[in-house]
Fold Histidine--tRNA ligase.
Amino acid sequence: MTTSAVSTFQAPKGTYDLLPPDSAVFLAVREAIAAPLRNAGYGYVETPGFENVELFSRGVGESTDIVSKEMYAFETKGGDKLALRPEGTASVLRAALEANLHKLGNLPVKLWYSGSYYRYERPQKGRYRHFSQVGAEAIGAEDPVLDAELIVLADQAYRSLGLRNFRILLNSLGDKECRPVYREALQGFLRGLDLDEETRRRIEINPLRVLDDKRDAVQKQLVGAPMLRDYLCDACKAYHEEVRELLGAQGVAFEDDPKLVRGLDYYTRTTFEFVHDGLGSQSAVGGGGRYDGLSEMIGGPSLPSVGWALGVDRTVLALEAEGVTAAVPATTAVFGVPLGDEARRVLFGTVTELRKAGVAADLAYGGKGLKAAMKAANRSGARFALVAGERDLAEGVVQLKDLDSGEQAPVRLEEIVTTVKERLA
Ligand code: AMP
């Protein structure tokens, strides 16, 4: 057998593989984000990796980069127009509406999800074409406590992982009463600026996004632009003030960011982003907000809702940037080293018993000799090796070797599980 041959294939551009041991950190991050949600009454939802393309063009918005430039849209052999999901909210809301979850019981319907998302982006560190999010949505209630709850839960998730250098940016985008008035005022201001063709087009379809332009030449001209904060109607102002107070009362620090707009069309009122200062240009580790109009945009009833999505890839990068080691469940604790065919059968049984008893155990495969098998045992990170040869088996024992100290002693076969558990405790 040769192991030196390399596959001719590579992971597609903008993607990467999750491999051990790093993959364990990803699982730990997903779990850490999910735990506070489960604890707060959110139920797990899973939707397909692709949807009718219209769901996103109507829901997320034709004018957004996500839909107009970055969507993996395709036509099937059967003529269906589909797209790989670029985000989670539209799909989750579609699923909730389709199953009539909003009619079954108390509102809000609280759901969480975890999965892969796809955007045809220009890849760079922290920005991929395939990435992973854990998200939460609270559908069908207008209550500032819900907005605050979600922000608190995300804060808790990041803190439980040991992250410290993140900030919460908060803004209100107004509602269908006050935002159009602001939009017009902003358009009036923007039309008077010296901007390129594409940006001028953006003024007409999505003027708020111009505020988000990263270029200095544009930012300089934006000084003195009308701010949404000055246009909020009384209801939006009061709502926002209450969200701010609720967060303050829970001891969650945030920064007011009147320029925060985010890249999706469906947001109204509360909008927030979690940014990490150790990540360079791709600093957003998560974000979300209220989307009171989305249900109607995709043909449903009025269901004011709020949610967020946290990026797993970037959270892992943030942990690295802070030098935090996520608590990863223990890998192999015991490693079987069988010497000969009989020993292989016996140790396979022992390893199975250990696993059933909740002890992580592994085995040398392929008839390795003592030297190669011990090397495998050491490489596995196990605390103990169970070495068994013909003579041991004849005496009804295996050798339990402590791989840290090198000490070794025989243990009777029927006592292995108890002995190992004692020694590991
Ligand atoms: P968004 O849906 O754009 O609000 O994104 C929510 C979170 O998902 C972001 O804060 C990122 O952490 C993550 N995310 C979005 N796009 C990408 C991407 N292309 N690569 C990696 N993570 C991403």
Remarks:
- DSSP finds 17 helices and 16 strands in the chain.
